[in-house]
Amino acid sequence: MNLRLVRTMLVLVFFFVLIGCAGKKTVVVLLPDPDGKVGAVSVTTDGGQQLLSEAGQMTRTSNRKKEPELPSLMEEAKIQELFSEVLAVEPEPPARFILYFDSGSVRLTASSTALLPEIFSAVKIRSSTDVGVTGHTDRMGSPKYNLALSLKRANRVKEHLVSGGVAATVIAVTSHGEANPLVKTADNVAEPRNRRVEVIVR
Amino acid sequence: MLRILVLFCFVWMGTVVAALGGETYAGHVKEARGAVEVVRAGKPLPVQEGFGVSEGDMIRTGEDGAVGIIFRDDTILSLGPESELSVERYLFSPREGHLAMIARMVRGTASYLSGTIGKLSPESVRFETPTATLGVRGTRFLVKVD
After folding, report:
1. What pLDDT was estimated at residue B44?
2. How do B125-129 and B140-145 pair as beta strands?
3. Per mean pLDDT, which range of A14-28, A151-165, B127-141 is the poorest?
4. Residue A58's pLDDT is what?
5. Exposed site from A62, A136, B24, B58, fewest CB < 10 Å?
6. Candidates B13, B72, B140; nearest CB to A155
7. Which of residues 79-138 of B touch A (CB under 8 A)?
8. Higher pLDDT, B5 or B121
9. What is the 3-state secondary structure (H, E, C) of A139-163?
């Protein structure tokens, strides 16, 4: 499905929704991430846009034709009043582990081997049924070779997890190649920190 | 020659394993309380922890319902009671540059924490309500639609 068709469909859907439920109010509140960082949310109507960029900032829209309200701060007590159930059900963010290997091989480095018990522990504590093992490469050398090596390494990590007691069926192995670097570099630049396998325990 | 064959086998294995290892789902339900259902191809399905959520699913909670979902890119989406939201679009294949997430919320309360799609391609993420379009920049927010 090409993008234009998708956009057209979304616009048609919007019109039907508008006719059906004119006057639905939307309230948006920006919160800090679990690690305390604060991002930004843009709230757009046909009448204009507001940007929330501070923790606790909120805006409100009641009508697509009008600009969203100027950002204001929502008190903690009000946030709890409106959102207590959804805040209570929020899953814990996944635990992320980064593993490295001896050069050109599928052998974990000593310090990465030492991380394995922590991974087993995270899987157990979370009763995880969804563990992602993802290989990554840097932008140096042959993409084909890099991709194959990153997948071999990811599969090797999966073997480690399975021998540590993690069920193979909950583990999904993939590779992002060079598309998801830890450290951004120009093409053909070696960056050992990117040549990693990430284990994400959800 | 043998080395090329071995490498090829591993790549192929990796792809097959990736396909089998739940890669077809957009995400999984991590928490579910009270009445939660997913409407898929017009059919309502009961939801419990571990339920695989797909692109196109419409997630609905009842008066006492609440649900928390972790997507493959680690986006975390939660719904409170009496809420309804569709996962209109979900694409996460960074190697092919396929990144997209469009959520459309009809009513209720939601919390959204952006994941890798939002990190790699913030313009590919959109959260729609009846009266607003939300764009995200590496962030967490709450939405209430009345």
Report:
1. 97
2. unpaired
3. A14-28
4. 97
5. B24
6. B13
7. 79-81, 83, 88-89, 94-95, 97, 102, 104, 106-107, 109-111, 113-114, 116, 120, 128-138
8. B121
9. CCCCHHHHHHHHHHHHHHHHHHHHH
What's residue B13's pLDDT?
52
Task: Quickly count: other Cβ atoms within 10 Å of residue A66's Cβ.
Answer: 13
Instruction: Give residue B87's pLDDT band: very low, low, confident or very high (50, 70, 90).
Output: very high
Contacts of A64 in chain B (CB under 8 A): 131-132
- Alpha-carbon distance of A105 to A83, in angstroms, equals 49
**Rounded mean pLDDT of chain B?**
89
Facing residue for A28 by CB, picked from B70, B76, B134: B134
Q: Does A155 sit within 8 Å of B10, measured CB to CB?
A: yes
Asked if B86 contacts B107 with a C-beta cutoff of 8 angstroms, the reply is no
Cβ contact B66–A28 (<8 Å): no
Q: Which of A33, A64, A176 has its CB closest to that of B113?
A: A33
* A1-54: pLDDT as tens digits: 566 666 655 555 444 444 444 568 999 999 999 989 999 999 999 999 999 999
**ipTM of this model?**
0.83
Q: How far apart are CA B20 and CA A87, in angstroms?
A: 33
Question: What does pTM read for this prediction?
Answer: 0.83
Looking at residue A8, what is its pLDDT? 55
User: What string of DSSP letters covers chain A?
Assistant: --HHHHHHHHHHHHHHHHHHSTT--EEEEEE--TTS---EEEEEETTEEEEE-STTEEEEES-TTSPPPPPEEPPHHHHHHHHHHHHHHPPPPPEEEEE-BSTTSSPBPHHHHTTHHHHHHHHHHHT-S-EEEEEE--SSS-HHHHHHHHHHHHHHHHHHHHHTT--GGGEEEEEEETSS-SS---TT---GGGS-EEEEE-
A/B interface, count of CB pairs below 8 Å: 210
Interface mutation vs chain A, best among B86, B140, B143, B146, most A CBs within 10 Å? B140
